[in-house]
Design brief:
6-blade_b-propeller_TolB-like; Neuraminidase; four-stranded antiparallel beta sheet
């Protein structure tokens, strides 16, 4: 499978390929400095410099079963990763941005990271606890898990708004997979999309003006790879949604926060059609 690391420019409406590889890579993050993207592949983590694109491996110590739930702190100094090398299910760790020994953050598994609070003090993540999906937060240094919402429905993709007041997520609690938001204490859940598409992984822009997300065709179960999908954008002033582009992708395309620091561009993965 050929992987294409793409950058979409909101001003022009155009997408360009930054990097192409025969290796399967996923889930780009854009660093706060604007200089690099972070991706995963084959259980490892890589830095991709914007001005000289290449896969530069980041040292993650013994951890070699990373999934595509990873990100970087608002100050750019710390990475968060999810790995199951030492645990039966996904566990959250933090580590120096340049590489080094990861520190375990979540005692309970499975835990899949998706959002970092704008002040840098808490992590938001998806969990399964007592057989039910939910969304939790935890101090970045570890400690007590705060389970914000949980039920027999599916919950995923929690990401903070830049003002720190809301957490966006996707859930089928309304009957189909749509985007929702709630206060950071789990109160006031509010459905934000209601259409035929199967909507996943909302990412508020750093300037608070838009929410980017991944949309599957009606009837899709879960968030599989190798599908015709679209990237969509909600304008939070008008509450209008537009389709930015369609592509071959799905899992790995847009799992984690991927906006450029200036909110003018975002990174995503597309894949060669079989």
């Amino acid at each position: 499978m050929v992987s294409y690391l793409e950058i979409f420019d909101l001003a022009t409406g155009d997408s360009s390929t930054l990097f192409k590889t025969a290796r399967h890579i996923e889930a780009p993050n854009w660093t706060p400095s604007g200089a690099d993207l972070i991706v995963n592949g084959d259980g490892k983590l890589f830095r991709v410099p914007i001005h000289a694109p290449d896969l530069l491996m980041i040292d993650t110590g013994l951890h070699a079963s990373l999934n595509n739930d990873h990100g970087i702190s608002p100050d750019g100094q710390t990475l968060v990763i999810c790995d199951k090398t030492l645990t039966p299910h996904s566990c959250i760790y933090t580590m120096p941005a340049g590489g080094g020994l990861p520190t375990r953050i979540t005692d309970k598994t499975p835990s899949w990271w998706h959002g970092w609070s704008p002040a840098g003090e808490r992590l938001a993540y998806t969990v399964v606890r007592d057989g039910e999906f939910g969304i939790a937060t935890i101090p970045v240094s570890g400690g007590s898990e705060a389970l914000l919402i949980r039920s027999p429905h599916h919950y995923d993709g929690p990401d903070y708004t830049p003002d720190g007041q809301w957490i966006w997520f996707n859930s089928d609690r309304g009957g189909s997979m749509d985007l929702w938001r709630m206060r950071i204490d789990g109160t006031e859940p509010e459905q934000m999309t209601d259409d035929a598409a199967v909507n996943w992984f909302p990412h508020p822009s750093p300037d608070g003006g838009h929410v980017l997300y991944l949309a599957y065709p009606e009837g899709t179960e879960g968030h599989p790879p190798d599908r015709e999908v679209s990237l969509r954008l909600i304008d939070l002033d008008s509450r209008k949604t537009c389709i930015l582009t369609t592509l071959w992708g799905g899992q790995g395309t847009l799992n984690v926060p991927c906006w450029s620091p200036d909110s003018q561009r975002f990174a995503y993965m597309r894949y060669a059609r079989p």
